[in-house]
Amino acid sequence: MKTLFFLARHGETLWNKQQKLQGQLDSPLTEAGLLQAQQLAQRLATPAINRIISSPLPRAEMTANIINQTLSLPLQQHPALIERHFGDWQGALISKVSTHPDYNNIFLQVTADAPPNGETGEACALRFKNALIEIAEAYPQQTILVMTHGDILRCFLAQINQASANDELPLYANCGVSTTAFDHLKQSFSISGTLQA
């Protein structure tokens, strides 16, 4: 028995465009972000998705709502799908925080290192994994669109792909989608692939 997840990042936001770290703060979708959400809705019109579960942050909620104008599915929120907490780095330009001596360990890899007063990549990945298991157990054998955030997806997928601690991990594109299946018997995830733009 398996539950299939489409894991999607929200559309482009103002702070994405300005190269600022959002974390658990928020900024509005840009015109490009609104268009990305509409285009993603069209790409998701064919798979037999049963429901949408979104992060409660407004940028993810807005993207999910735009997609649901096309899909018309049950839509709910799950608090654990919220983005990684970047602590003191939230709202800062990436160019500024990238000079921090531990920036690579914190932001480009999944480690036990955290931004000042923030969340580690390992803790973020575990939080997301536990949320997906909880969702899978509530809706077994369904196909679920999860609308969430770039860094939490990067951290989770790196651990599923068993990336080493030294691997520099790519950023997750706005409205990018990966698919993963949760095997209820094995209590494990496998990567199914990506949905191309």
TrEMBL record:
<dbReference type="InterPro" id="IPR013078">
    <property type="entry name" value="His_Pase_superF_clade-1"/>
</dbReference>
<feature type="active site" description="Tele-phosphohistidine intermediate">
    <location>
        <position position="10"/>
    </location>
</feature>
<dbReference type="InterPro" id="IPR029033">
    <property type="entry name" value="His_PPase_superfam"/>
</dbReference>
<dbReference type="GO" id="GO:0005737">
    <property type="term" value="C:cytoplasm"/>
</dbReference>
<feature type="binding site">
    <location>
        <position position="59"/>
    </location>
    <ligand>
        <name>substrate</name>
    </ligand>
</feature>
<dbReference type="InterPro" id="IPR001345">
    <property type="entry name" value="PG/BPGM_mutase_AS"/>
</dbReference>
<protein>
    <submittedName>
        <fullName>Putative phosphoglycerate mutase family protein PhoE</fullName>
    </submittedName>
</protein>
<dbReference type="GO" id="GO:0016791">
    <property type="term" value="F:phosphatase activity"/>
</dbReference>
<dbReference type="Pfam" id="PF00300">
    <property type="entry name" value="His_Phos_1"/>
</dbReference>
<dbReference type="InterPro" id="IPR050275">
    <property type="entry name" value="PGM_Phosphatase"/>
</dbReference>
<feature type="active site" description="Proton donor/acceptor">
    <location>
        <position position="83"/>
    </location>
</feature>
<keyword id="KW-0413">Isomerase</keyword>
<feature type="binding site">
    <location>
        <begin position="9"/>
        <end position="16"/>
    </location>
    <ligand>
        <name>substrate</name>
    </ligand>
</feature>
<keyword id="KW-0324">Glycolysis</keyword>
